[in-house]
Amino acid sequence: MTTPTKPRLVLDASAQDLLFRQARTADRFTSEPVPDDTIRAVYDLVRDGPTAFNQQPLRILLLRSPESRTRLAAHLSRSNREKTLRAPLTALLAVDNQFHRKLSRLFPAFPGAADLYAENPALRERSALLNGTLQAAYFIIGIRAAGLAAGPMSGFDEDGVNREFFPSGDLSALLVVNIGRPECSGERPRGPRLSHSEVCTTL
Question: The pTM is what?
Fold first, then answer.
């Protein structure tokens, strides 16, 4: 009788902890600044995450100045305002509604890809939302890989944020992410997670 092998992840345990097991969504941060080169390193890591036709619709607006975050806070839900004003850096993630204009360069294997999306605005909108959301998830993991914490938030007036920051209509707000070194005092316990058997089904 053979003994079943113990399942093993290639990623070592410390990296698993950094990215997932010990990582937490942060509401409060220290005052330590987040340098531009750190965000560049994060993006350079996660930009290789897959998107359909390599379309890469995510765009990132970094809000550093108090003035820019005050403009954003006016459109946030009440519970999200103070934490955003106090964070060392806020990233406003958006999707490029005209991402198809870059497909001839990003996906040359399919010369007709740009026309496919140009002729179908509904398909373009759904695809930008899906693939931009995938990239937003990669971005959060990249923030954790840098030893930082992310505080993603969807509680905002989308129309108001778009008018404030993306008046041309080419970009649409997707997610607000506060970034920094977490201040761990008073941290809530981690919420429960669904088990493998509750989520995964084999046919």
Answer: 0.93
Task: Quick: pLDDT tens for 183-196.
Answer: 976 567 888 999 99
Cβ–Cβ under 8 Å, residues 92 and 98: no
- pLDDT tens column, 26-35: 999 999 999 9
- Cα 32 from Cα 70, distance rounded (Å): 20
The C-alpha atoms of residue 164 and residue 55 are separated, in whole angstroms, by 26
What is the spatial distance between Cα 188 and Cα 87, in angstroms, rounded to a whole number? 18
Distance CA 6, CA 21 (A): 19
Are 174 and 147 contacting, i.e. CB atoms less than 8 angstroms apart? no
d(CA 92, CA 100): 21
Phi, psi at residue 39, to the nearest 5°? -65, -35
Number of residues that make up the chain: 203
